[in-house]
Amino acid sequence: MEYAPIACSHHDHNHCISDALEAARQLCLGRGVRLTDLRLQVLELIWQNHKPLGAYTLMEMLARANTRRVAPPTVYRALDFLLEQGLIHRINLLNAFIGCPSPNIKHQSHFLICHACGIAIELDQPELSQKIIGVAQEAGFRVEKQSLEVSGLCANCASDPAVSTSI
Amino acid sequence: MEYAPIACSHHDHNHCISDALEAARQLCLGRGVRLTDLRLQVLELIWQNHKPLGAYTLMEMLARANTRRVAPPTVYRALDFLLEQGLIHRINLLNAFIGCPSPNIKHQSHFLICHACGIAIELDQPELSQKIIGVAQEAGFRVEKQSLEVSGLCANCASDPAVSTSI
DNA sequence: TTGGCCTATGTTACTCTATAACCTTTCGTA
DNA sequence: TACGAAAGGTTATAGAGTAACATAGGCCAA
To answer: Is the distance from CB of B19 to CB of B103 less than 8 angstroms?
Structure first.
């Protein structure tokens, strides 16, 4: 049985963006932390699509949007904040960052990453997290953070003959 | 029920090294690929312990062992070869490389990484790989490579009060 | 409302990781 | 032994991330 993840389907992405930004505002308000202009702008840029973005790409996007250039530490500090608040995830495989659709629920970082179109699909599988914790416990290991990064082809790209034959 | 992974236990590590190098020799012989001096030396250095090593650390170790300095491309080419042959894995979380104890069996990259002592324990859980493939298939995703990197505390460090209190 | 503190951002310089491009050497084979 | 492919050497540079210190802005207490 298959379902199409939202990242992979045609959808009104403006809705994704506004939902994410509103969730971020509420979450920061509730926690008493400051979602500054810069942090909000970085989060908004990350949400431009469902593809993870590198810090230096973000810097260029900021420069283009703001006329003023920001230096690496500035963007990394904003990213650190967003990571701490769980508003974004880091994709180690790509040295890149992607928005989290459910920042208010504590969860692990599990992604499907399409190497054809570049999108990253976040999995929501608490059962899988539990399975991983179980396997680790058998080895006497105390789990703190999980990072699952599966690369391959998303539903769209896998069914696109132009993609499948060009690999 | 717990078992102590070998990387975590007291063990004769020379045995790990000689096994790994012998396995590599056999595997390359069988595949008709060349395990050159440099490649063998890099593999041996990686196997010095169960902690992932960065490319630049390896470069320094090579320089110390050989009197002659090697440049980054040289060590990266050796690493690429070893990765292609499945003799080592890359740990994205650490930008580092670690020896694979079972290069002759095709498998996914699943690791437990202790942030206290630095060791990486490779999991051997085909069932977990299958579970991940299943979850991905539900989203219509065609899996090519899995990378699971779990960070936390290994059995030794978790039971060491000096470690637990210093975090 | 001012002063002081804390947090956020700016700036400069640097480290670490990785690769491009081109040249030389080495190895296996014809 | 000579040739071609593969491996390694060299130089330069791209890409990712951080240290250290300076400045600005928001918030609270007196």
So the answer is: no
